[in-house]
Amino acid sequence: xxxxxxxxxxxxxxxxxxxxxxxxxxxxFGPRQRxxxxxxxxxxxxAVTPQVSWSxxxxxxxxxxxxxxxxxxxYGVKYAPNxxxxxxxxxxxxxxxxxxxxxxxxxxxxPTNSGRTVYCLEPHxxxxxxxxxxxxxxxxxxxxxxxxTAIVAELQRERSLHRVEARLPSxxxxxxxxxxxxxxxxxxxxxxxxxxxxSGVVLYIGDAENKWLxxxxxxxxxxxxxxxSAEKIPDVVVHDVPRNWLVLVEAVTSAGPVDSKRRxxxxxxxxxxxxxxxxxxxxxxxxxxxxxxTQISWETEVxxxxxxxxxxxxxxxxxxxxxxxxxxxxxRALA
Length: 335
Hints:
The mean pLDDT is 88. Helix 1 packs across helix 2 and helix 2 packs across helix 4 (84-97). Strands 6-5-7-8-9-10-11 form a seven-stranded mixed sheet, with helices on both faces. A two-stranded antiparallel sheet has the order 1-2. Helix 9 links the parallel strand 8 (245-252) and strand 9 (276-283). The longest helix has 24 residues, at 137-160. It has eleven helices and eleven strands. It is α+β, with helices and mostly antiparallel strands. The chain folds into two domains: 2-160, Arc Repressor Mutant, subunit A, CATH 1.10.10.1820; 164-332, Trna Endonuclease, Chain: A, domain 1 (3-Layer(aba) Sandwich). It is 39% helix and 16% strand.
């Protein structure tokens, strides 16, 4: 009997794999969306092992890495650690878009890019999966498909309740994703800009869900700045029009102050700018500053949201102004 067990396990694994594919097809996912990874992710999120019936499906909270570990332990398929994005792109994002998964149900304010992001089956989807293979499946499937648009709309509505609304100096409203540094970015837009960049035009705002949420590419191009990737752009970029400065602000809650390395990176990124560069690190409070104070680069500024009318100047001969190494030659004589 022990010798036959692996064959039996292999058959059970194959059966569940095929069933997961049939479920995804019934849910109208296309061939590319019901790929092998998607099938295994569905099994993981329902906690359906080869020996467990769909009627016993549950909805555990799982991050991408725990999903990969679960699949390896229960179905013998191992994903390399560097394939996390593949799992997310080939399965998870499609399930979220279709309303099958809820992201961060335990903490909706958690930012999307948090390392602690988790997913779980949406309750209606879980109820449907539990009826797979029973006489109730056809009618339950029909009812679910008819209600899916409403389910997606409700999930989006709930998500929107946690979004961060911020008003730009122009009066325009932008909607930032929940949590992370976005509450601080709101303070930068609504408190820092009106005081320190009074005639400023906000050209870029970084958001965890959408790096290009607010990006005036044409305006930056007129200043000589061409940016192809959002990865290295500071969190907020503001053009001080009267003084022709680009104020580059990093919002720091857990990492990323303007240290000497970051200052050099920003100088390189904006090397062709016809505007002078001012480097600012923003913190929510003094406690956060205390954590990073030894990393702050000289010839930069620090702004604390709890004391919005003050900035801390890190040495140098100029107070809240570009230095020669971050200023076009034609502006240096005017400094």
